[in-house]
Design brief:
Distance between the termini: 46 Å
Shape: globular
Number of helices: 10
Number of strands: 12
Structural class: alpha/beta
Low-confidence stretches: none
Radius of gyration: 21 Å
Amino acid sequence: METQLLHEFVLLSKTLNFSKAAQKMNITQPVLSRHMKYLEEYFEVSFFKRDTHKVELTTAGKLFSEEAGKILFQYETSISAIHSFTGKSRRRISITFLGEAIQKFLINFLTQFRAQHSDIAIECRDSELDEAFSLLDNHISDMGFLIRPNFMVNESRFCTLPFQTDPLCAVVNKCHPLAGRGSVSLREVSEWPIMRVDPREFSLSDEYSTRFLTIHNIDFTLDKEYPNLKTCCFNLEFTDRAVLLMPRHRGYLVGPNCVMLDIAEENCWFNLELVWDNKNTNPSVAIFLKEFKDFLK
């Protein structure tokens, strides 16, 4: 069985969305569906429960997701060990990163890194947070440049190196009563309906917006949920009673009829972090980490 099929299954088991998983793997949805059907026929068991609204893993699917992750990890570890023994290390580093917040910073660093280590091939791919951790967990990617809310706890198997922060902001229509304020408190924000991304489209929607309210024990009312942040910002152009919480770096999505306000609380921000699996045996990881720490000085 090809390891690519296992990669596809593990990613799909994380996203539970055939369209998104196919796009991330650069294949079509019918191809991904055919591959998953092949796996189910091969093992003579159903891994997925499907209906018109959602996809879920069966008990067998959850078990296979765990085992496939172990197989991929062992495969990568074995390849690394053999290459190290023969003196033919891969000299490759694979990076996953989260879009706009990281892009400019990452380009600056990689330009310097490549000038000093032209023998190490660098592969980069943009991803979402849930996919990024799957890629790191299965050693498809060696390093992750991620942005996460400051209250999110890091899993023990991952090492983390924070290097920048990005503040939480509130966005309102220019006709909103809060629009004339330079900054607003979370409690003031909670007095208005909160617009956010639909968790069915982005599983971490709450963590990136309304969780900042709940961790401060502030009740709130939801306004509407939309497929993505861009759609939220567009609809806020015509909505003068709702508030949208978002990181400052996404401010380019804010339209001419809206304003972005600072949050008064000082403990509401997103961490930009370098994340990697502490069991990754790729010899290029140590070189990359040293150069990155020097770059931060």
